[in-house]
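WARN retry 2 of 3 for item q-0093 after timeout on previous attempt; input resubmitted unchanged.
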Amino acid sequence: SFGLGFFLTGVSWVYVSLSVFGGMPWWLAGVAAFLFCCVLALFPMLAGWAFKRWQPESLWQQALYFAALIAAVDWLRSWIFTGFPWLTVGYSQAAPSPLAGFAALLGVHGLSLLVTLSGALLLTCWRLGLFVVATLAIGGFGLQQVDWTTPVGEPISVALVQGNVPQEMKFRPEAFIRTLDLYRELVEQNPAQLIILPETAIPAFFDQLPAHYIEALKSAAQRHGGDLILGTLTGGGERYFNSAISLGQSPLQVYSKNHLVPFGETIPPGFSWFMKFASIPMSSFSQGPENQPPLAVVGQRVAVNICYEDVFGEEIIAALPAAGILANLSNTAWFGRSLAQPQHLQIAQMRASETGRQMLRATNTGMTAVVGADGVVQAALPAFTQGVLKAEVRAYEGMTPYASFGNLGFLLLTIGFLVIGRLPVRRIR
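OK item q-0093 returned
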């Protein structure tokens, strides 16, 4: 019951993408969204069942055991069936929470473990709980003072473009020229060394765009000695990709999205019948190569990820230590005016905290933002507005413990909690 309420509240925007923009009948979209949340609710149910099945007698052991189970099922949900780690408990502690200091050590799943332990102890042994909460807060604050990574090179100017193109107009032929003109004007009017446009900002295959339009974007970037990263489509025929392409003073480079969204960008085996009820454009992308190198632009190496990809922390760190800057291109217009935009910004904050690198977010409708290497949002545009966010950013070098070892520390700690939670407690008579 808790899991169902939690996910129905937190990912209700799935209904919007299926019904409002996907063209699915409202009743079928409602059933699909409800069943999706029912499946997600199985994970906390599994933790609850395991806790009641092997519940320790000692209250403090119960807290350890419960925290380990909740964090473990969150981790399981992050990779099984391609993974859906949205609403992982640890995201509640994104900066400026003191616990965010532990992200560089243990990642978001480690934060899930710590915050769940804190809540469980406050419930079962409140004096011990207060001590643990205070200790974790002080420890997290201290860890936030550690410079795991250091800035390198000179600052570069960036311009993050938020076109605010309505989703219902994005793929309509009559709106295509207006979209091209909009982004060209925003690029030419907002010079910067690095200009980033959102995911599929240009909803057409790159090699089908007018040559003079591509040259106009390239020239605008070159006039300021820089580069532009453009979200568009590549490939053609039966194999096409959700890609980011660089234009400007550096050679043309392409990053193609590797971790695709089930039902939105790829159709799971056996579910082609389901997609017949929806009219989602480009719902059968091909998967981009694994371990693509960062884009070498404006003298920096920028690790690009597209939309949903930044929710997978261990995939983001694969580009390190080569990359000095992280960049996410997104289009969450699919989810309307919902919780999806601020939730996705929290996810970006956590990736910055885990890696010790700045995260640049260029989105269609929000939330376009610059996130500092400490996970704190330095600047952001209001959602559902048209604009360009300008800032100066730095590349960072070095590796946090999480960037070096991924979820290993979290898994060892979780196993330790499970073992200690099951140890027999000697009673004093």
